[in-house]
Design goal:
Strand order of the largest sheet: 1-11-6-3-2
Number of helices: 5
Structural class: alpha/beta
Helix content: 10-25%
Radius of gyration: 21 Å
């Protein structure tokens, strides 16, 4: 018997006792100010959170970001904000490989890890959430209240998810980063180099 077969046989002979799944009915983490905590955590992972007044406020803040003003190719999936590339006219997602900046709609934010829930409900090509050099996520706040757009933790976030059709969704937190090599943090290693989250009041 080969060493490989011997190891596999030993593994198969080990019966692991079953264990019950942990209960989701727990006292999950809560924050006195979930909005402030979201901003702090997002800043800690390399992003920025900004509250703005309507589409005009969003436009004004974007104009302060060099990566946006200097971008040659931009995509916007936000009503009232026009990009240089119309995503609805793009047939092949590979054509989006050189997009500099994308402004995309987020659903809500999570204070615990500064994640934003994003779906493709208003986005034709989901790759646009990952391939641009820079990304802004825009969350429209119910009744103009930022606190209505931020949940405390992932347990609350999962309860907030709704599925009316087969769709793509993911949580995005901060720009891309890695510290795998010599524990040296590199921003934008395999995705967006910057991330701004705008709460539109």
């Amino acid at each position: 018997m080969s060493s490989k077969d011997h190891i596999l046989k030993s593994v198969r002979n080990q019966l692991v006792p079953s264990a019950d799944l942990p209960s989701l009915d727990q006292d999950w983490i809560q924050y006195d100010d979930a909005v402030a905590h979201f901003g702090e955590v997002l800043e800690g992972v390399g992003g920025t959170a900004i509250a703005v007044e309507g589409i005009d406020g969003l436009t004004e803040e974007l104009a302060k970001i060099p990566a946006y003003t200097e971008a040659k190719k931009t995509v916007s999936c936000i009503e009232g904000l026009v990009g240089t590339v119309d995503l609805n006219r793009v047939e092949d997602p590979h054509e989006l490989e050189d997009i500099d900046y994308a402004v995309l709609p987020g659903e809500f934010a999570v204070a615990e890890n500064a994640a934003v829930w994003l779906t493709d409900a208003k986005i034709r090509h989901r790759v646009i959430a990952f391939i641009p050099q820079h990304i802004s996520l825009v969350i429209h706040c119910p009744d103009g209240k930022v606190e209505e757009a931020v949940v405390n933790n992932m347990a609350e976030a999962y309860q907030r998810l709704t599925w009316s059709r087969n769709e793509f969704g993911c949580f995005i937190s901060g720009p891309s980063k890695t510290a795998d090599i010599e524990q040296s943090l590199v921003i934008g290693a395999h995705g967006a180099r910057s991330l701004h989250v705008f709460f539109v009041l």
